[in-house]
Amino acid sequence: MTAIERFTGDAHPYSGGDPYADYRTADFPFTHHVDLADRRLGAGVVAANDEFFAQRENLLLPGRAEFDPGHFGHKGKVMDGWETRRRRGTSAEHPWPADEDHDWALIRLGAPGIVHGIVVDTAHFRGNHPQAVSVEGTSVAGTPSPEELLTDDVRWTTLVPRTPVGGHAANGFAVTAEERLTHLRLKQHPDGGVARLRVYGEVVPDPAWLAALGSFDVVALENGGRVEDASDRFYSPAVHTIQPGRSRRMDDGWETRRRRDRGHDWIRYALVAQARIRALEIDTAYLKGNSAGWASVSVKDGEDGDWREILPLTRLQPDTGHRFVLPEPVTATHARLDIHPDGGISRLRLFGTLTEQGTAGLRT
User: Fold this and answer.
1) Fewer Cβ atoms within 10 A, N terminus or C terminus of the chain?
2) For residues 363 and 357, what is the distance between their CA atoms, to the nearest angstrom?
3) What is the pTM (predicted TM-score) of this model?
4) How far apart are CA 286 and CA 122, in angstroms?
5) How confident is the model at residue 150 (pLDDT cuts 50, 70, 90)?
6) How would you label 165-196 residue by residue, b for 16+ Cβ within 10 Å and e otherwise?
7) How far is it, in rounded angstroms, from Cα 330 to Cα 352?
8) Category of 324 on φ-ψ map: left (φ > 0), alpha (ψ -120 to 50) or beta
9) What is the distance between the terminal CA atoms of the chain, rounded to a whole angstrom?
10) Beta bridge mates, 325
11) pLDDT digit string (tens) for 18-42?
């Protein structure tokens, strides 16, 4: 584990205006990976030892934390994060918390995977943030309960050792552990508040589950597909196109800026592994006056393979799911979606089965 840029100590008290004006952040090299703790993937905060001031579930909310300086409840200031009560010592002679005292939250990742970086965001926690944080990870099959995760039988790997953090800051940490993880344990020392937790990494699906499914979406994020590159990310990230479920709003898809040239936009994907694709779907849900006009899909087999068009340039309708059955299965490891001339789509689905070579190449 290596800290990329360190922030420590309190931030200045809020004095009005834009609360993010003095927010401390940095460019972290791992944020191009998917957030394995994304609620849209099925992640959840399954337990916490204390959430007196603010609920643990806020940790995984999409978007940045909000701040309303006048919002108070019966327990005090209402914060958009996870905040615990102040810890105390054992007596008036020793009123301070012990060095080992801490609060914790258990996080189930939305998809199991290898973690490359973590951001512990203390936005708006200026003098009430933890002094330090630590993060551990484990891999447990099935759907363990919080009680099962906390037994002595579970082995936890340290991803972020106890490290001082700053208030009102994005505290980022690179992670070097290469093992597949299903759950994390976030500790704050000794107490305080954290606004958001982001866990960036690569999805590593369960080979047995994929084998049982047989035919599935071989580019879906939850199954291990990923976006390698895109021509434009102006309005929304290209990774939205392989998120689970149908888009629920316009910004839940991928939309490019308006082109004023004769070019076109595109996304390039890596499939979960080598697969035989039999059908595909392009969905433009909630994109109405800004959906792509036409689209084509090409694939290649291997990094050095040649691109082969499997869906010729086809007219798209706004706010519509378009389904296509291929005349024969096509073997591929990568795919490219081209839209003409610009606009957006909400989802791309590529349905198929893994080849023997693809199955053998899955990580466990």
Assistant:
1) C
2) 12
3) 0.91
4) 33
5) very high
6) bbbbbbbbbbbebeebbbbbbbbbbbbbbbbb
7) 9
8) beta
9) 22
10) 279
11) 999 999 999 999 999 999 999 999 9
